[in-house]
């Protein structure tokens, strides 16, 4: 995080990283960090790929089934591409993930009251659908009495 023009890394260098913010109270959802309910488990690129692959195999998304047959695998970018093409399963998957990310960011905005939020990582791959400038600021603003921060994707 940058505060007052100075880089602030935190005690272990992860200041501002929200992937391990607990967003769900589920003791069975154990993250690779050792904690439970982390945002990464519900909205990360790995989750999108795994959930989309399961949907392809179960027949919930013919578009994803065709993609996995053609390419052998599905990643977050494929989910974004199919959502863009109109696959409703992919749209709902991204909408759910976007809501989880938006809620976590709203908490971060409340705590730090930043003027700018920079989005990086797997979410960036689906930025057009998940974190469009028209959508993400609304999620942050709706949950934040601190107000709206500018959102930039990188
Ligand atoms: Zn974690």
Q: Tell me, what's the shape?
A: elongated
Unreliable parts = none
How is the quaternary structure best described? single chain
Tell me the strand order in the biggest sheet.
Answer: 1-2
Number of helices: 8
Question: Percentage of helical residues?
Answer: 40-55%
Identify the CATH class. Answer: Alpha Beta
> Main beta sheet, described?
2 strands, antiparallel
Radius of gyration, taken over Cα atoms and rounded to an integer in Å: 16 Å
Strand content: 5-15%
Tell me the CATH topology.
Answer: Nucleotidyltransferase, domain 5
Describe, in short, the structure shown.
The protein is mostly helical and 154 residues long. It has helices at residues 39-43, 45-58, 62-71, 76-84, 88-112, 122-125, 127-130, 136-142; strands at residues 2-3, 6-7, 116-119, 150-153.
Write the topology of this structure.
Elements: E1 2-3, E2 6-7, H1 39-43, H2 45-58, H3 62-71, H4 76-84, H5 88-112, E3 116-119, H6 122-125, H7 127-130, H8 136-142, E4 150-153
Parallel strand pairs: 3-4
Antiparallel strand pairs: 1-2
Helix pairs in contact: 2-3, 2-5, 4-5, 5-8
Bound molecules: zinc ion.
Zinc ion binds at residues 20, 31, 33, 35, 38, 40.
